[in-house]
Amino acid sequence: MSPSFRSSNTFFKVETRFGEKIPRWELKLVFILYFNRAIEIVYVRRIYDLYMSRFGKRMRRYLATWSDSFIEEFNEDAHRRFLEEYIPDLYKTLEWGYAFDDDKSLGAFLFVFHSYKPVSEPNKSSFCRFEFPHDCDQDEIQAFVLEVAAMAPFTSGTCGYVLQPWPDDVEAFDHMYFVCQRYWGVEAWNQDVTVNWLADRFKCISWLTFLGTSILQEFPDLHPAASRAAHAYRELPTGAMYQTRPRAALIDLNRREDFRPEASLARALLPAQIVKHSSFGGNRWTDENSVQWLHRFTPD
Amino acid sequence: MSNDETALSLVKQIAERAIEHRSFFRIKREPVFRPGADEQDINKLKRLWRHPLPDDYLNLLRTHDGIDNFDAPNVFLLSTKHILDNPDMDELFVDAEMFREGEIFIFCQADNDAHSVAFRASRKGKIDVVDIDSGGIRQEHQDFVAYLESRKAELEKDIARHKADRKGLTR
């Protein structure tokens, strides 16, 4: 990546709103695992323990994922409360997830887990999401995500570059549209929309693509084909991970960067990919071009 | 069972279920059943509205003159004193042109938003019950007992849904 990467408005735009700096859009490395049911407490606890043992010292704040909760300071006392009270009490009342971050406006480390209510909010995929600065050590991230994925029976997941638009910012979603049309290695993002379409399929090819055991069992021919097509793969107790290339790449079509590794894996995994997805948002994305974009590596 | 007994029984069941309903939202509020109203206050109440108030409602007030934290999450069955001290409770809804002046008589109200339950008199004098908030009419019921039955059923359905959401998850 060029030295002017961060100074370019293509991947980062920060604005001051109400005295606070916010990223209207930002390139990050994001790892997300989706679950087709609420995440059981035992798995939440394992993932929490692993994340905090690796990145806990960076964490400064937390909040519960229900809409009116307040941001609280994350410190040793809060960590103890999570172990003794908050995680064991998950799902009993209002708390169906928590988010933690390092309080940085740009390039933040963030960890969030949230389960949707099986009866009140049916057909939505629960998730665990980990965000890292775009220039984070990819070897460290890869080692971490493989450990997480082996811990809990997920349905699918991705890890790679994502352009995160500020929620409800139409211009940011329109900008994401143009970036994603040019850079095929940058994943279009609107998690609130995506969770409605993933029940037993995966979203799209990423640097690292994860398929859970349930999908691999439904499509027994998938794993042999995908393991041949991938740059590397890893079998996990919970499913499998397929890697397209040694390092995540932006895949700039204007520079004619090669996307054959992605196309090859995408063809192998096509039977398990979603065929429906509503618009990512903004004025440019539509239902139709959102699905087309998700299938960009397998246009036919 | 007479209408009065049915109403009293339903009111108690609603208050009981409201406690369980609130527990899913970590709200700790217990119902407070106030002692019965005296006949003087009942008569003042009857004169406050130009239409006849239903007997089963008035008889409930004779047993319990208001129930704090009656329904979930924060609805009170108003006491005669509260109603007599606040004769313009309907103003918000009249100003919003949802009802004509004197068309409704509010007997239940939330303590922190506009949610209210009222008797409504039609132009022909028929009295029914409307469940209202700032967005308009949420529900309509043919009479007081029908309103109570509906609330009990709604609470039970909601509680069942909350339990189903958590089944197998809170071990």
From TrEMBL, chain A:
Pfam families hit by this protein: TsiV
InterPro entries: TsiV (IPR021815)
Entry protein name: DUF3396 domain-containing protein
UniProtKB/TrEMBL annotation, chain B:
InterPro entries: Knr4/Smi1-like_dom, Knr4/Smi1-like_sf
SMART domains hit by this protein: SMI1_KNR4
SUPFAM superfamilies, alphabetized: SMI1/KNR4-like
Domain Knr4/Smi1-like as annotated: residue spans: 36-150
Source taxon at top rank: Bacteria
Record Pfam families: SMI1_KNR4
Record's protein name: Knr4/Smi1-like domain-containing protein
Species name: Mesorhizobium sanjuanii
Source species taxonomy: Bacteria, Pseudomonadati, Pseudomonadota, Alphaproteobacteria, Hyphomicrobiales
